[in-house]
Amino acid sequence: MRRSQGLTGRRRIGWVLIISGRALVSSTIAAARGDNSGLAPRRVRRLVIAAALTTLLVVPINPAAARAKPSAPDRVYAGETSQAEPAFVQIGGTGTRTATVVVAWRADCDDGTGALLWDGAKLTIRKNHFAFQRSEDASGPQITLSGAVGKTAVKGTWHAKVTFRNDQGNPTATCDTGLVRFSLPRAGYGGLTRGGDGYPLVLAFNKRKTKVDGVDVIASLHCESGDSFAFHAAYGDFGLSRAGAFGDEFDDSADEIKADPHPTFHISFHGKLGRSSAQGTLRITAVMKDAQGNQVDSCDSGPLTWSAGM
């Protein structure tokens, strides 16, 4: 996990990002079939809580699926990209190995907005390398991905570009990630949330497995007003019990966010560490107040579950 210069909220490491959705170009993701379509981006405006989000599609990944194959267990490499977004790569298969790559990413748009989304693909590994390239079409963005599998980390690069269009098909904005780099350690845990919209989630434990050094979470919050927004933050310093349980409930005022109305978040994060995977629950709520301190809205991710493997 990448830490900021200091703890900016109780248990928080790094920054908080709030992004409101404006549109979603529908597409499917087909990792289970081995083809490589991409999840289309969510059009957003940074730090403005305004428009409704559309439900995301998720990649069904089971971090513990290989336990039935002791001779060829899956391995997960997980961490953050150079954008400080969660990503993980699951290595599996016998004979012909495969890499299931899941990356959350942000793109800046030429009209002043941005895009927050995640994509996944199941790729064949050849000589410890994997690669994927697609052109933009109605099913998803332009993507160029390459990576190499090492003993202690999976390293690679990612680039995505997408054009948004109006109902008449005319371009309204072009969004580009620039070159995104990643180095995902073998020690990291990676998986997905279940329920709600579903997003990648990564965890880092200390070497003795007595503490969660960091968990990187993204969730969609839906508000009583009808507005919705995406929330992204990293938290850490969760101690483990002897039974492997960890978690806490705490508030995050996100003081560095300059938004009106301003959110105060309540985080409920709990989990349990097993031999090769962790699982648990997550819920994020927010109270929205105007500049005078009056509550004007409340938002909720709803109850989420998550699982992550190593």
What does this structure look like?
A 6-stranded antiparallel barrel has the order 14-15-16-22-21-23. A two-stranded antiparallel sheet has the order 1-2. It has one domain (7-309). A hairpin with a 7-residue loop joins strand 9 (129-134) and strand 10. The protein has strands at residues 7-9, 12-13, 17-24, 42-46, 75-80, 86-92, 98-109, 114-124, 129-134, 142-149, 153-165, 171-176, 180-185, 189-194, 200-205, 211-223, 228-235, 238-239, 245-252, 262-273, 277-289, 295-300, 304-309. It is an all-beta fold and 310 residues long.
Secondary structure elements and pairings:
Blueprint: E1 7-9, E2 12-13, E3 17-24, E4 42-46, E5 75-80, E6 86-92, E7 98-109, E8 114-124, E9 129-134, E10 142-149, E11 153-165, E12 171-176, E13 180-185, E14 189-194, E15 200-205, E16 211-223, E17 228-235, E18 238-239, E19 245-252, E20 262-273, E21 277-289, E22 295-300, E23 304-309
Antiparallel strand pairs: 1-2, 3-4, 3-17, 4-8, 5-6, 6-7, 7-8, 7-12, 9-10, 10-11, 11-12, 11-13, 14-15, 14-23, 15-16, 16-17, 16-18, 16-22, 19-20, 20-21, 21-22, 21-23
Radius of gyration: 19 Å
Principal-axes geometry comes out as flat
Number of helices: 0
Count of domain modules: 1
Helices and strands, in order, run as EEEEEEEEEEEEEEEEEEEEEEE
Report the strand count: 23
Provide the residue-averaged pLDDT: 78
Q: Profile the largest sheet.
A: 6 strands, antiparallel, barrel
Low-pLDDT regions: 1-10, 21-71
Question: Which characteristics define this entry?
Answer:
310 residues; mainly beta; 6-stranded antiparallel beta barrel; 23 strands; disordered N terminus
